[in-house]
Design a protein that fits this description.
12 helices; mainly alpha; 2 domains; 341 residues
């Protein structure tokens, strides 16, 4: 297989093959079968975008998709039609001021980095390119905030104001539904405290949402431009560079010994970002050993997250951290191979 030819053999490197470059067991083959199996992954990624994004989800997905179509010629008309819709969402009418430009500049940065990394390292797993794109965009944004003093404070205010405005709207809706009973002051205080915490870690949330949005954009491009449903590898194969454990450790240290609000905030963002990635990695390990997730399993998982989310997420993080040192899936494959021989 010619792994370097984008147009000729898209399956050669458009799929997330994992860090080893090998075709994982149970990888999807065949457009129809792959499309059926990848739909849950894409839906899950888009739900992550909706959950974590402090920017417009359509912008985070649409701009990278447009850059992919512009950088890599599309074979099919449907991809170009989708690009037209993406332009409409990206250039949506409204007040073009303040955060309108900020969120599009960020999406352009992330999409540009992703396209550049795909050009440079086409054989790398999607997760590696997406992480690189978010990291590169973060460095550029940090450099810009240094060059333009005060720009960070403006962005921080815009996002905080957007989050609190959304919370206020939601509370007003609850007030209308409850009628005369109203909303308890304790609930209002708790909700606004949660909003403050969300505003504090918005860089981490934006980074996670951007990675998920890149996954949606990448899948859409591979599917619509090349008719291939295998743009994303199996969720059970999700992993990332083990050296990123040091980012988590650094974040914890900054939280414990960091002096000043800025250092503590940097630490909390590093912990939230890496904690979420390790939770996803832990979930991937569970899926690998469990063999997948049925509809009933998905329903039970959602109910568990609603009822005991801290316990479920904590266990997933622990499993993900353990996989960093033990590489549980590789060990299981080796044991399976030795058992067969």
């Amino acid at each position: 297989m010619n792994r370097g030819g984008f147009g000729r053999t898209p399956n050669g490197w458009l799929s997330d093959r994992g860090s080893t470059g090998a075709d994982p067991e149970g990888a999807d083959h065949g457009t129809g079968e792959a499309l059926d199996r990848t739909w849950p992954r894409v839906i899950g990624l888009f739900l992550i975008v909706l959950t974590f994004s402090v920017a417009e989800p359509a912008v985070l997905v649409g701009l990278p998709y447009l850059l992919l179509v512009a950088a890599f010629p599309a074979r099919r008309l449907v991809a170009l039609l989708a690009a037209v819709f993406a332009v409409f969402f990206v250039l949506a009418p409204g007040a073009r001021q303040g955060f309108w430009f900020v969120e599009r500049a960020w999406a352009l940065l992330v999409g540009g980095w992703f396209v550049g990394l795909t050009f440079r390292w086409p054989d790398r797993a999607f997760s590696a390119r997406a992480l690189g794109a978010v990291a590169g965009s973060g460095v550029v944004a940090a450099f810009w905030s240094v060059v333009r003093p005060g720009s960070w404070s403006v962005v921080d205010w815009f996002i905080s104001e957007r989050i609190h405005r959304g919370v206020s709207t939601a509370l007003q809706a609850v007030q209308v539904l409850q009628g005369e009973e109203g909303v308890s002051s304790g609930l209002v205080t708790t909700v606004y405290q949660a909003a403050d915490a969300q505003a504090n870690v918005f860089p981490a949330m934006l980074g996670l949402a951007s990675m998920a949005a890149l996954g949606v954009a990448w899948w859409l491009y591979v599917r619509l431009a090349h008719g291939d449903g295998d743009g994303l590898g199996p969720a059970r194969e999700f992993r990332f560079n083990d050296q990123l454990i040091w980012l988590l450790i650094s974040g914890i240290l900054l939280l414990v010994v960091g002096s000043g609000e800025g250092w503590s905030r940097a630490g909390s963002n590093a912990v939230v970002f890496m904690g979420a990635l390790y939770a996803l990695r832990g979930a991937a390990v569970v899926l690998f050993f469990y063999g997948g997730l049925s509809v009933l399993g998905a329903v039970l998982l959602v109910l568990s997250l609603i009822l005991v989310a801290p316990i479920i997420l904590g266990c997933a993080v622990v499993i993900g951290l353990g996989d960093t040192w033990l590489d549980l899936r590789t060990r299981a494959r080796r044991l399976s191979t030795h058992g067969e021989t």
